[in-house]
């Protein structure tokens, strides 16, 4: 199983449907809302391989329509240093 988590130097605040994430101490602050917030929440909630399925279920959008975009956005969050693989 492959899970993701916020990187240790990233502060996160989840406020209803918005997620604020910032690399400390200098930022920038990344504001995620709508689908982006749903992807963040699901990326941190379970196995990486099923993120798109869980986002589809949460948003009511068919997984076939969002799978590629979800995976690309998760890859971007990892590349930006906001999320990393959980060493478990």
Give a description of the structure.
The chain has one domain. It is an alpha+beta fold and 88 residues long. The strands form 2 sheets. A 3-stranded antiparallel sheet has the order 2-3-4, with helices on one face. It is built from 3 helices and 5 strands. The longest helix is centred in the last third of the chain and has 17 residues, at 63-79.
Short characterization:
The chain has 88 residues and is α+β, with helices and mostly antiparallel strands. Helix content is 40%, strand content 26%.
Largest sheet, in brief, is: 3 strands, antiparallel
* Count of helix runs: 3
Compute the separation of the termini in Å. 10 Å
Shape: globular
Record keyword descriptors for this entry.
88 residues; 5 strands; three-stranded antiparallel sheet; alpha+beta
Summarize the SSE layout with pairings:
Elements (H helix, E strand, L loop, with lengths): L3 E3 L3 E6 L2 E6 L5 E5 L1 H9 L7 H9 L3 H17 L3 E3 L3
Antiparallel strand pairs: 1-5, 2-3, 3-4
């Amino acid at each position: 199983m492959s899970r993701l988590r916020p990187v240790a130097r990233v502060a996160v605040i989840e406020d209803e449907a918005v997620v604020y994430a910032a690399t400390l101490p200098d930022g920038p602050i990344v504001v995620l809302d709508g689908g982006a917030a749903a992807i963040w929440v699901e990326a941190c909630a379970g196995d990486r391989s099923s993120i798109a399925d869980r986002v589809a279920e949460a948003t009511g959008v068919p997984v076939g329509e969002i799978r590629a975009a979800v995976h690309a956005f998760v890859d971007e969050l990892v590349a930006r240093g906001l999320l990393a693989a959980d060493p478990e």
